[in-house]
Amino acid sequence: MADLSALFDLTGKVACVTGASSGLGRHAASLLARAGAQVVGVARRAEALAEWQAETGPRAACVAHDVADRDSLPDLARAVAAPFGAPDIVVHAAGINTRQRADDVTPEGWDTTIALNLSAPFFLSQQLVPAMKAKGWGRIVNFASLQTFRAFPGGIAYGASKAGVAQLTRAMAEAWSPHGITANAIGPGFFPTELTAPVFADPELAARNAATTCIGRNGTMADMDGPLLFLCAPASDYVTGQVLMVDGGFTAK
């Protein structure tokens, strides 16, 4: 019989969270630290990262870095491992949405979106997986989206990248789960973050979004805690290659 107290305990684990300077990434980094992990937050904004580290305490460290800079990812992997050791868990929360409509998409906007939302999670994981293999245990959590499954106006590049995340997650599971490394994705619905600020700045639009869910409201940060912790913890040992939508039932309708 499983020890229930150990199912969600991350004591002794090391986590790396990208996009940790704000929004769901910052919330994820703080959550994993509260669950007992030592957490390295990664983002471009050094000042915001330092604020998060000060709030979180001795279980936190930070590395200011652009995860979309593919050539520097070996250096990032070494920097992430320096404070507490090689990560057991990586949460890829960094992301961008240019909100360019199909007729207005620029090559630069497309490439930036794909590089950060789709390429970075793979190539950073590729750098971190060898240490996970050596331990025989690891967790990769990608960030999917409502647009993994639905088309939104102004979301063609973002939607393509997030649809790719779903298949990337399945392919990661196929490649690495035999070594004890699970790969899953979490798909937030309508949550108030910097990325969704334009949506929540319009009360009428926010209310319409809430009405499209089965539950009838938009998400709060606390709604992410259980699902995210589940995917990072021993509780999900036999779950891999899945996209868990935390969207109040939006994609069920």
TrEMBL record:
This is Gluconate 5-dehydrogenase. SUPFAM superfamilies: NAD(P)-binding Rossmann-fold domains (SSF51735). InterPro entries: KR_dom (IPR057326), NAD(P)-bd_dom_sf (IPR036291), Sc_DH/Rdtase_CS (IPR020904), SDR_fam (IPR002347). It comes from the Bacteria. Belongs to the short-chain dehydrogenases/reductases (SDR) family. GO terms for biological process: fatty acid elongation. It comes from Roseovarius litoreus. PROSITE patterns: ADH_SHORT (PS00061). Transmembrane segments: none annotated. Residues 13-189 form the Ketoreductase domain. Gene3D superfamilies: NAD(P)-binding Rossmann-like Domain (3.40.50.720). GO terms for molecular function: oxidoreductase activity, acting on the CH-OH group of donors, NAD or NADP as acceptor. Pfam families: adh_short_C2.
